[in-house]
UniProtKB/TrEMBL annotation:
Its EC number is 3.1.3.25. Transmembrane segments: none annotated. It catalyses: a myo-inositol phosphate + H2O = myo-inositol + phosphate. InterPro entries: IMPase (IPR033942), Inositol_monoP_metal-BS (IPR020583), Inositol_monophosphatase-like (IPR000760), Inositol_monophosphatase_CS (IPR020550). This is Inositol-1-monophosphatase. It comes from Streptomyces ovatisporus. Keywords: Hydrolase, Magnesium, Metal-binding.
Length: 269
């Protein structure tokens, strides 16, 4: 069974890498050069939406051609059950506002679950020329380099990433949380892509990341990559990362930051 599972993981990784690479190329090459100039116009937003949908359709179609019995969950609405025990969880364009404005913090996130557990994760970040990948139990890599999270500093020396919701009321609550948190850490960064932030924890570029309001497709690949690089991930104490709260950090930072975020109410508006 172990050999069969390893073979399955290898197959899923190969498909995830190719699907993410193709979608990343589509988005990178297909973005109009003047898109950001029209960032306040509905036509520009429509272009981004069309690219998002095209990316998901490409990924869905590529995977279905090779594994037609798998399930699929995508941000843009593609969702169906499979019969193979494998489900793909896909964010075809994470960081849409960055993409709209021509900022480099966007990526394609492709994860594969087997019997409910994420076993493969790929985050393709074309503007950074980086492909992050992980297989459960086999470590995490960026391009060909193995990833390791940073040794844990004291919390007041930790660089922490976060994100904000689109809903104004929730953003206000998140801003108040940042006001309480920022005197306790080195500084806070906001990249605009949860998938990229999770990979940056894995790569040692952030000591920690947290956010409320994420969906499975935001988390699946990046969470596995962070864990396989030695980071700890979770939600509220004792729970896995979910829509209420997602935290990823070097183990020593996680032990302090997770309960602190819980006490500060990072999980509610």
């Amino acid at each position: 069974m172990t050999a069969q599972l390893d073979q399955l993981k290898a197959e899923l990784l190969e498909l995830a890498l190719e699907a993410a690479h193709r979608a990343g190329a589509l988005l990178n090459d297909g973005r109009p050069a003047d898109l950001g100039v029209s960032a306040t116009k509905s036509s520009a937003v429509d272009v981004v939406t069309e690219m998002d949908l095209a990316s998901e359709k490409l990924i869905n179609g590529y995977i279905a051609d090779h594994r037609p019995d798998d399930g699929f969950l995508g941000e843009e609405g593609a969702s169906f059950e499979g019969s193979s025990g494998v489900r793909w969880v896909v964010d075809p364009l994470d960081g849409t506002v960055n993409y709209l404005y021509g900022l480099p913090g966007w990526a394609v996130s492709v994860a594969a679950e087997f019997e409910g557990e994420t076993v493969v994760g790929v985050v393709e970040a074309p503007p950074r020329r980086e492909t992050f990948r992980a297989v459960l139990g086999h470590g995490a890599f960026c391009n060909a380099q193995p990833l390791h999270c940073r040794p844990a500093p004291p919390l007041d020396q930790a660089l922490v990433g976060t994100g904000f919701n689109y809903v104004a009321e929730r953003r206000a609550a998140q801003a108040d949380l940042v006001r309480q948190l920022i005197p306790r850490v080195r500084d806070i960064r906001r990249s605009g892509s949860a998938a990229v932030d999770l990979c940056d924890v894995a790569a040692g570029r952030l000591d920690a990341f947290y956010e409320r309001g994420l969906h499975p497709w935001d988390l699946a690949a990046g969470d596995l990559i962070a864990r396989e690089a030695g980071a700890r991930t979770g939600g509220r104490p004792g729970l896995e990362a979910d829509g209420d709260l997602a935290v990823a950090a070097s183990p020593g930072v996680f032990e302090i930051l997770q309960p602190l975020l819980d006490r500060l109410g990072a999980w509610h508006d």
